[in-house]
Structure to design on (138 residues):
């Protein structure tokens, strides 16, 4: 490939586990209004695997980098409710599987303890976004 030559887009083949797509997820932060790095893998068995990488600002102004894999399994009974942004927050969290595994990084000394911390959590839809309850794995 020569310098300045346009890159050819390659079609990613459909995998046994699903079809990978670059996703524009509706949950944005002021630090990353366009989250172009987010990716989603939609499986044939109604599972969705998400890879999101938001930048977060703490209450005291420190910046945190987060990389987070998420697994969402939506049974047919709740699929329509989760697909509707206006009704998504009313879906019972017990009716679907939503887990997350965040990793954090920061240059702020007061949050250095988060570097290398492994977390595991569960998520649920709330009005206007998603809430996660995350615990540190020791």
């Amino acid at each position: 490939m020569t310098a300045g030559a346009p890159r050819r887009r390659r079609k990613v083949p459909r995998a046994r586990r699903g079809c990978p797509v670059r996703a524009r997820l509706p949950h944005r932060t002021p630090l990353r209004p366009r989250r172009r790095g987010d990716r989603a893998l939609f499986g044939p068995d109604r599972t969705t695997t998400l890879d999101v990488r938001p930048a977060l600002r703490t209450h005291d102004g420190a910046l945190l980098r987060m990389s987070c894999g998420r697994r969402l399994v939506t049974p047919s009974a709740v699929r329509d409710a989760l697909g509707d942004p206006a009704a998504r927050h009313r879906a019972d969290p017990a009716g679907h599987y939503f887990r997350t595994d965040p990793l954090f990084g920061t240059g702020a000394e007061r949050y250095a303890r988060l570097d290398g911390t492994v977390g595991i959590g569960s998520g649920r839809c709330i009005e206007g976004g998603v809430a996660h309850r995350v615990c540190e794995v020791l």
Summary: Residues 76-83 form the longest helix (8 residues). Strands lie at 19-22, 39-42, 47-52, 55-57, 63-73, 97-105, 119-126, 129-136. Residues 27-35 have pLDDT under 50 and may be disordered.
